[in-house]
Amino acid sequence: MADLRDVAVIGCGCTKFGENFEWGVDDMLTMACFEAIEDAGIEPGEIQAGWIGMQYPFTGFSGATLSDAIKVYDIPITHVENYCVSGLDAFRNACLAVASEQYDIVIACGVEKITDQGGRGLPTSGMGHPVMMAGLTAPSAFGLAFTRHSLEFGTTKEHLAHVAVKNHRNGAANPKAHFRREVTIEQVLKAPPIAGPLGLLDCCPISDGSAAVIITRKDIAKKKRDDFVTIKGMGMSAYTNLMMYNKDFDYLAWRPTVKAAEAAYKMAGIKEPAKEIDLAECHDCFTITEILNVEDLGFCKKGEGGPATVEGRFNIDGEVAVNPSGGLKCFGHPIGATGIRMIYEVTKQLQGRADGMQREGAKVGLAHNLGGLGGIVCGIVILTNEN
Amino acid sequence: MAGIVAYGAYIPKLRLERKQIAESWGTPGAPGEIAVGNFDEDSITMAVEAGRDCLLDEPDGVGGLYFASTSAPYAEKSCSTIVASVLDLQPDALVADFGTTLSAGANALVAAVAAVDDGLAESVLVTCAECRVPEPKTSDEQTLGDGAGALLVGKKDVIADIKGLHTAYDEILGSWRTAEEKRIHDFNPRFYAAKGYIPAMVASIKSSLEKFGVGESEISKFIYGAPDLRSHGQVAKSIGVKDPSRIQDPLFAFVGGLGSAQPLAMLAAALEDASPGETFLLVGWGDAYNVMLLEVTDGIKSLKPRRGVKGHVESKQGLGSYAKYLRLKELLEVDVDAGSSSPIQTWRDRKAIYPLYGKKCNKCGEVYFPPRRVCPYCKNYGDNLDWRLKRKGKLWNFIHDYLYQSEESPTTLTITDLEGGGRIFLQMTDRIVDEVEVGMDVELTFRKINEAGHFYNYYWKTRPVR
What's A21's DSSP letter? Predict the structure, then answer.
């Protein structure tokens, strides 16, 4: 059996994210998958298995959503649903299958078609208990962390605004990003309120989109291209849907991020993340989410996420370039597609062919995908071009 | 004979000044204000709150629950069983629903006395709540208020003995509402006062006193409701009581007409100020004019303090605008996503949703909620104990959410550490946005969450201590 470190990404594709009113699920999935297939230099018929990340049933049911899009019949395809980590978990399962040598070439993709639903925010109706969970929205579930984090560490709304400004600066340069414009601190601070300190510009948008990657083993990858990237570390952790009832949960850290990072860093042999990682696509569904995440990932000390962002330590040329793509905040967040989109971005950064802002000389990149209301599950993948 | 063992009341926190209604129509406004149930309140939730005030959240030994209202949320479906479940009454408790008449509250009280006297139940908690919908621009609009009263009828620890009962009825069309309608009709209030309410009330008082062999001057307080303040005063005049302190305040000034809940709330208010030996004459009104002669006992001195009518009346918050009133009374339609729900799930979770049971871990002793089988702290599986959570605690975390589609924006979401253990996530109601802070004392209140699944979904919320 091969090792997870022998698993390579040889092709990746991604649609433009945004309010893609003119494209359906099938359109976007097809575009992303064929871009990845062409990028890998393979034929669709070479794909031996597939994993597809989708969160919402109105986007699609089961693995056949993928086989219908690219017409690869008669192979195993698995639908992965794991909140906002659906995409990254699809990738993880695909990697494990390749590492086990069950398959040689597989596809992992993700898609979400949210705008057909109308309404504001992510649909939560029918999710969770009808009365016990009534009222909880995504921005509130994450925003609850601000209340405790600001009491403990003095984090401010201005700190949050700097996350939005940084990610919009990066995303504005990215032709596939949902938003192509920068924002100012003042605009972020004056945006209409959404939840607690989070204004409209502290929240990622409602986006449609799809992303796909082709995965194989290193020995096969070498025959396909020189600049493939390989897995260096991987970690995944699920906590609880009921964190708001748990007195051990302090809202100062996303526990799944901490645990998944421990596992990924251990596998990668990373001791000082801020020095050893060049860039990170980090889950920033809301600005406060990124503040805690950069602390939990060890990019700065606990409690310093706000000031460290203000100091520019996570800018494209900072200690760690955090969200060079623009992140969920600016690039967009079609739930099931996001994790794969992160792999797409990290891969292209490590290949030196980023669509937007390029982190110069990047050797190690991290994809961090956090899901569920208030950070229930987290998947982390560390990729490298040092093969 | 049975007696009154305890009293409770509930008046919603929101109030609308009468002049705000009048200004909207360009008509002269009366002084004072009316109490208006919030968007998450109805007769069931208010009956629960009055019942809790009466029992002080200690339901042990209560043998029955009566619910009375003309504005019950269900036309077919018991409300008393919901109230009894929330109050955590024993499964063999006697329950019954009374409705359709403004004498429903007093009727339930008489029925409770009969049930206790017959030995059918050791005690019966009578709850009565109203949130009637007037026709806009009528005098009813400035008259009616929302609220509830509760009286515990029993034989032990009685605070007021029942010395006599008298019954009477009167058939006349005063105010009415057909089964299909939401708003009440009031054809001619002056006709109803002159030919219905006043003569019936006066006759009932006079004949009951005669029957009881008690002189008018021996009654410390006449406690009777009325359709409006003017009619109420005319009854006092007709029975010849000149001392206003002997006529119990009908609560019109700062609460409004409580309809069938009036007799219960008024008796509760009278008992708040009562001294042993005082004699009360309580009269229901509407269609039945049942009379109860009461004598306050020494037991009144040892009754534990409660919020009662006074405490609730003092704790108030301006509603703000007449438009909000129209919406609260559902006279203004808005499109609200009701979400989804299931009677099966509600039934399965009834012990968590209604009396708010969590679990106490048999191994580590931690209290946790929701009541899942495995302790989230020590992971003990299987034998954890059912545990009724306390209804107060300290706010540990909160956020104001502007995204959730609700009648009230923002929706305040709270995480509370409860007294006696357990951390719980709940919406907060009856709060002022800028006054919510970590560490504040909160209490729990039973509210309507939504109408998902075409039925009323109830649960608990937090609120700042009233």
Answer: T
User: How far, in Å, CA of B76 to CA of A191, rounded?
Assistant: 47
Q: Which two tokens stand for residue B434?
A: 């800028």
Q: How far is B189 from chain A (nearest CA, A)?
A: 42
The two structure tokens encoding residue A227:
């600049």
Please answer yes or no on whether B376 and A125 come within 8 Å at the CB atom. no
Which residue do the tokens 């992140």 mark?
A327
Of B352, B397, B424, the CB nearest to A144: B397
Say which amino acid occupies A212. Answer: A
In whole angstroms, what is the distance from residue A254 CA to residue A293 CA? 7
pLDDT in tens, B322-366: 999 999 999 998 877 777 899 999 999 999 999 999 999 999 999
Residues B169 and B23 in one domain: yes
In this predicted complex, what is the ipTM?
0.95
Q: How many CA within 13 A on the CB side of residue A336?
A: 30
Domain housing A67: 4-118+208-214
pLDDT in tens, A303-319: 999 999 999 999 999 99
CB B463 within 8 A of CB B443: yes
Q: Across the strands, what pairs with B460? A: B446
Look at residue A15 and tell me if it is in a domain: yes
Give the span between the Cα atoms of B434 and B400, in whole angstroms: 10
Residue B428 structural domain: 391-466
Tokens of B243: 């001392």
Q: Is residue A68 part of a domain?
A: yes
Whether A33 is catalytic is no
**Distance between terminal CA atoms of chain A?**
19
Instruction: Output the CA torsion sign for A339, A344, A345, A350.
Output: positive
CB B201 within 8 A of CB B285: yes
